[in-house]
């Protein structure tokens, strides 16, 4: 192993060391703030350790046949780490008032982040599977973290069973392709997907199953049904994690499988992808239409959003790869903000997250700052110009237009049109006061203001991306 | 290359197909014959697994402690981890110092997780011990 | 070069954000420091830009400061670029310079108001938007600022929103200017469709090559642009909102409804002069509208009793002069008058604000009188402002207005010139009516309980003093506009001749004399006229020629009628099919979310099978 390869693997070393350190720290003494501090420091160091390889700019560094650290990997590793950092901050505010053990959630999140990094660098079916499992399994425990809550345990069980099923499907698909072609390397697999034809039933069936497995993790229709239930059951920071880190990691892997060859996948696969994308856009938006539970609404909205995003898997070329990165980054920052607000306004309640829309009625008059951020994030989700969401959506539509994917483009337009309705419904609820309301301003405690700083940062970043997206495009350029 | 179109033409295909049909046919034949030829009588005791001896049955309210499963899982996990060490042990020389360092890190992580498990009380067998630990921790914080 | 320029609008924008987020918790002093300070920074930045611009004049007479490209998709690459030339520098110095002193004055005027920080946040927002408007190098950028100032104007007119009348005034201003904005947006669509760009510099080059002079499309576009300008600058027929806009605090009237925002229309036409050159008809319409407006507003001002409304109508009429000037192609005098008008009208409004506060929020001039002894400094300010307004020699207004009338005469537009001349007479009459009734004559207020009290603080005196000086010396400023704006098309051989250049002066002096005779010497004459045979005309003038009544009959009543007839929403009931069907689909889909694990697994399994079928079978 050369020094260059070791440098490329540095993030993995740092985050693994962090995990062990946090574990030992917990076994020495349970201390919430210390654990959070250690984790955040570790994550920041990991983020820093991305720099040497990135700055060196030596191009892809192949580390054993299993992993490759290239531009795509660096970008998605950074996304995963930034999102994890955001989730951590929220966790600290959210779990401060939690009565049972609070420290393990950091361990779970760090483990998941390691999985995300692995996925981002995966160059082999084995790494892909390890990463995928490492990413999603800790979150089974994360979803069911409040073990005394029946709903949480139910959500965890659902996630466990369905996610295991999806992984099995994916594995089966890989096995079928392997049986037919003997390929396990992701580059080779991508080439096989490009050339797949009707004479290769095993390859096609395998591709479909791989697609099904990944679609489950990205909550694409018809593999979406777990999403609202699990989002609702999980504590708000874990929901944020599921919506950001998991999606970013899986998207990176999906890009490697469907995009690495530089040509569009075989028309057969494209047909399936198109139908999945259309179904997600429309069904996701329709389901969110009259939803009264905010977490479920956001789950449906994420289904629609990943329907929009699938367009990049259909269109070939570096342009759509860039778009995928931009879209993912904008979606990630916006989701962090949205779930962050839910986590912040929920944490003092303790029992159950504040998730019913009626509980947000007129909230602006009590918590104007937080609600202003929330509103901005909602507008970004809806894709209003000068927000990050607009940039992402615009880039996606541009890719569709350039590749003449008119069906998908009209799907995006239709989905966004429905989307504006339900996002605005939330916003209007925030500002219309309840009859007989009182204007009281809650003070922000210390733990909350750490989360508040994170929120403020994410909003500034969101607006900056919306007004000046050029650097983001540069970063996402493979 | 697997090609479904050419499968029926391969010589093994008919042999295998015949074999499968034969297996199912034999089972069906045995069941049908015994059903046709055997005598029948019905009684309550006849439907029990054992017609004589101790009356089978179990207390429905028996609760197995989750501890059993937890410890079993720990055993399996550490057992599987140990498996990797066998692979290393037989290739100790070939793996060289690099392998040694890797194995060392691996074992250290295992050790650390064992420490963690012990400290969080995952291996405390009796409820009393867990309760005592809980109280100690609460005093600490 | 000029990398610091964005600071000019970033500072007020930051000020707006900080003040808006403070939620009125901030102390008055801090809010004033932020609100006034941010505009001060803008003013300093502008000063630096002017110094740099004049000490080292850039090639071509302008500087482009490219900030960034918003996004780049195909040919569509909107950029944020600032365009700095003599015209935008003039506008910038008016906005930030006069704006700064008005802010300073406002920090005195608004003391004690509950929503002190809110007031300054809106003011800062206005300044930032107005700077966007004048700095943008493309019409999209300009339109963004255009809407921004409209929003700030709406917020500030309705600043004291607890009185429903103020809210109604704000709404009226917003809705009426919206009519103009829509016309302007259509003009932008046409321009983009025809030329594929909204960049002003590029338009100026491309448009003459593709459109013949006087072609229908050019005329239509220019008239649409004129519609936008008319709405923003309160000219006929969209002028009715400006008097109502006086419901806002007086510094707002000074800044937005006198010095800066209402002149945006003048700026727009000057900026687009290359386009208007393609349509002589539209350009002539600009002048005609200006002339009619200045006369109508002049007559109306004669009959007003509210001190701020008099000033509002006078603003309308002065902007009419600017339009008139542009209509005859005299863009430079128009911009010059824009600047001097900003000086003396801001001075007049601020003085009026001081009078109003001295009189305990009394705005009716017939409840004042003899005030010159009580508040001599304010009287001096008011007098100088009025002299400048009536174009008295050696005041700033003299140079600019004279120039306008002179060029109108020289370019052969004698009808417009006559209108302007008569307008000058009216101006002198009504503005000295204000002076004589307010500051001379008997004291018509209850001296015991409502004795006028003067102000004694520096943040009151300094702005007035500075504007006072500017109103006098402003006429000596030379604006280097030659590189940006064309000269008026004066035929060869025309020259200053005989009595014509001096006529405006005589007319003004005559107006002052008439005013003195009617309102100070023999006040019973106008009273008798108003109650006697001329009563209907007086009533007509007082109601601003009945435009509000006319519009109420023409637009509001039919609209209300249509709305009432259509109570059951015939149109919507057809459109409502879409949401209803979506709701139906939603209801059907929601059934699938049963929460049962078995069902979810089954659906996922079926989905996998379906996918395999999709991929593996053709």
UniProtKB/TrEMBL annotation, chain A:
PANTHER family: NADH DEHYDROGENASE (PTHR22773)
Keyword Translocase: yes
Primary location group: membrane
Topological type in the membrane: Multi-pass membrane protein
GO cellular component, one term: endomembrane system
Enzyme Commission number(s) of this protein: 7.1.1.-
Protein name: NADH-quinone oxidoreductase subunit N
Residue ranges of coiled coil: none
Catalytic reactions on record: a quinone + NADH + 5 H(+)(in) = a quinol + NAD(+) + 4 H(+)(out)
Gene Ontology molecular functions: NADH dehydrogenase (quinone) (non-electrogenic) activity; NADH dehydrogenase (ubiquinone) activity; quinone binding
Domain (NADH:quinone oxidoreductase/Mrp antiporter transmembrane) ranges: 122-418
Assembly mode: NDH-1 is composed of 14 different subunits. Subunits NuoA, H, J, K, L, M, N constitute the membrane sector of the complex.
Gene name linked to the record: nuoN
Keywords carried by this UniProt record: Cell membrane, Membrane, NAD, Quinone, Translocase, Transmembrane, Transmembrane helix, Transport, Ubiquinone
Signal peptide segment: none
The keyword Iron is annotated on this UniProt entry: no
GO BP term, example: ATP synthesis coupled electron transport
Family according to the record: Belongs to the complex I subunit 2 family.
Entry function: NDH-1 shuttles electrons from NADH, via FMN and iron-sulfur (Fe-S) centers, to quinones in the respiratory chain. The immediate electron acceptor for the enzyme in this species is believed to be ubiquinone. Couples the redox reaction to proton translocation (for every two electrons transferred, four hydrogen ions are translocated across the cytoplasmic membrane), and thus conserves the redox energy in a proton gradient.
Residues passing through the membrane, by range: 6-27, 34-55, 75-93, 105-122, 128-147, 159-181, 201-220, 240-262, 268-290, 297-316, 328-349, 369-399, 405-424, 445-468
TrEMBL record, chain B:
Entry keywords, A to Z: Cell membrane, Membrane, NAD, Quinone, Translocase, Transmembrane, Transmembrane helix, Transport, Ubiquinone
Principal subcellular localization: membrane
Compartment(s) of residence: Cell membrane; Membrane
One of the record's GO cellular component terms: plasma membrane
Catalytic reaction(s) noted: a quinone + NADH + 5 H(+)(in) = a quinol + NAD(+) + 4 H(+)(out)
EC number: 7.1.1.-
UniProt superkingdom: Bacteria
Membrane topology: Multi-pass membrane protein
GO MF term (any one): quinone binding
Membrane spanning stretches: 16-37, 68-89, 95-118
Enzyme class: translocase
PANTHER family: NADH-QUINONE OXIDOREDUCTASE SUBUNIT A, NADH-UBIQUINONE OXIDOREDUCTASE CHAIN 3
Subunit structure: NDH-1 is composed of 14 different subunits. Subunits NuoA, H, J, K, L, M, N constitute the membrane sector of the complex.
Function: NDH-1 shuttles electrons from NADH, via FMN and iron-sulfur (Fe-S) centers, to quinones in the respiratory chain. The immediate electron acceptor for the enzyme in this species is believed to be ubiquinone. Couples the redox reaction to proton translocation (for every two electrons transferred, four hydrogen ions are translocated across the cytoplasmic membrane), and thus conserves the redox energy in a proton gradient.
Family: Belongs to the complex I subunit 3 family.
Name of the protein in its database record: NADH-quinone oxidoreductase subunit A
Source species: Solimonas fluminis
Lineage: Bacteria, Pseudomonadati, Pseudomonadota, Gammaproteobacteria, Nevskiales
Gene coding for it: nuoA
